[in-house]
């Protein structure tokens, strides 16, 4: 009969595979970004993600298990979708918003998974593993919040392109304007 520990180790293997795949995907995403702040955010999260792989290996060790990966079909699908989005919007004003969307889908999957793993480690009475998993969860949440801030600060508006009139301009029937200040604020 399968137990919570079996479920925990199965999900841990799933996330170990996911993080290793994400380490390979993030450099491509950073290269596709045209916004310097987005590139920097992705590169920063790459370093964190490399640390996540190490922390997951530590969690396996805590449970006296060899680190192993199990194909994370969700991450495979999300990364494939991200590649498709990057290719479809390459060279467009919407590329950075598209990349943020793809990255946030991955972050949300990770937050859900690490939330469960953290809780299960606690139920299994392993505070050290729970603490490592909580650290990863907090970094994933922070990465997601950073992406949201970048989207709101520039990428979403940039994606509007020539449709980029403000709400006030639309309400007042004025033509769209792009002041030098608005252009500079975008990056």
Order of helices and strands: HHHHHHH
What is the mean predicted local confidence, pLDDT? 90
Stretches where pLDDT falls below 50 for ≥5 residues?
A: 166-187
Distance between the termini: 55 Å
Count all strands and give the number. 0
Largest sheet: none
Strand content: under 5%
User: What coarse outline follows from CA principal-axis ratios?
Assistant: elongated
Give the topology, please:
Blueprint: H1 4-32, H2 36-62, H3 73-89, H4 95-123, H5 127-160, H6 167-171, H7 180-185
Helix pairs in contact: 1-2, 1-3, 1-4, 2-5, 3-4, 4-5
How is this structure best described in words?
This protein is mostly helical and about 190 residues long. Helix content is about 80%, strand content about 0%. It has seven helices and no strands. The longest helix has about 35 residues, at about 125-160.
Short recap of the structure:
The chain has about 190 residues and is mainly α. The protein has helices spanning about 5-30, 35-60, 75-90, 95-125, 125-160, 165-170, 180-185.
